[in-house]
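Subject: DHA2 family efflux MFS transporter permease subunit

B.,
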Amino acid sequence: MSETAPPLTDRQRWTALVVLCVGMLMIILDSTVVNVALPSIQSDLDFTQSSLAWVVNAYLIAFGGLLLLAGRLGDLIGQKRIFLAGLTIFTVASLLCGFAQSQEVLIGARFVQGVGGALTSAVILGMIVRMFPEPGEQAKAIGVYSFVVSAGASIGLLLGGVLTQAISWHWIFFINVPIGIAAGVVALRLLRHEEGIGLKQGADLPGAVFIVSALMLGVYTIVEAAEVGWGATQTLLLGAVSLALLAAFVVRESRAKHPLMPLRIFSSRNVSVANGVQILMVAGLFGVFFLGALYLQQILGYDAVEVGLAFLPIALGIGVLSVGFSARLIMRNGARATLLPGLLLVALGLGWFSRAPIDGQYWVDLFPAMLAIGVGAGLAFPSLMTLAMSGATPEDSGLASGLVNTTQQVGGALGLAVLATLSTTHTDGLLADGVARAEALTDGYRLAFIIAAGIVGAALVAAAALLRPEPQLATAPGGGGARGRARVR
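Prediction pasted inline below.
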């Protein structure tokens, strides 16, 4: 039975939203600030190029592997408990990362950080949906969350560059500690605790083992494929085992009396398609953050701070669109109708990036692409999250939230591995043919951006063909504001 507690006031709900988004922002920032600081970490702790990748991979494996389980645990034992537990683990692990003086300590602490990040982020979207059940307010709240998730990546590039250059790489982790403590104290006092449906309703240990093993092994296979190759025996074998574990999980859940992940969550066509479209869109977008940053540094000679500033139009575009404007469009025209032009703009922006020359000029060759991607993502992310959460019941909101985060992580890891591999292979081939290094690198980046644009284009086609127009939300006669809205067909 759920605890009885007075409902939160409007001010308390919006303050709670800020607290949740601060927790999410801390996690999103951490994943990008580390990328900027990797050269300093490598030099300070004597990492080799291959071992340095584990500073990122250790986090990704734990984070991506536990998101779905963490979201379901929120449904079972209470989302506030999972959020606070994750925030505590993430904050302590950040402190350990900051003090790390050896490769082993840093990689181990990064894995623990991934565990905390998964627990924290998996339940946030579910908590938001439960706090804001009214469609108009929910659209606005999801818009704010979408801004944090999508713009946080570009903000992290700037913050990471500033901290690394002004102080040291240790502070990209130390800065999480006061933020995590403050967010935890406020969350403990403000967030409303609701009992979950109980472990008996989903304490499926074999199912948990299957899904965590499948996702962790799958993420590991993807990130290692960039090193060993997609056709390597290791990649094919581990990929097959990961798919077999995933199949075993689905079979188990279809037969379990109290499944960990009720398969009814996929009964909504829009929920399933929205998560699939998100995998494709994020796969394309992650290329622009990673390979775009390398292009700016290695070809145009930007330093870490200049790279962060160069990506600001994406953050600003997402912010302006996500916080308010996208919500109004979703209410007026529906999430599907808002999503499609957003995906088109992202694809066009990536396509513009693919013409980036060796002597590129920012305002001509980069800014139009950054702006198109920012505006497009500002329309697309809130729409996708609205669609992905549209079929979630209160009992399954944590699971749906974890699924959204899982598809983001899988899409990001898959896209980055594929694009980086193809870009590197193309560059190596050109270098072997005697092409100058700068030209070979640029051609490799161009190829990756073309493929990224194609992936987002495929997401656009899938969304247009498979998503069903949802009932439109319009202002009812005589109504005003959020509470005067009614569903019309």
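Residues 204-257 form one domain.

T.
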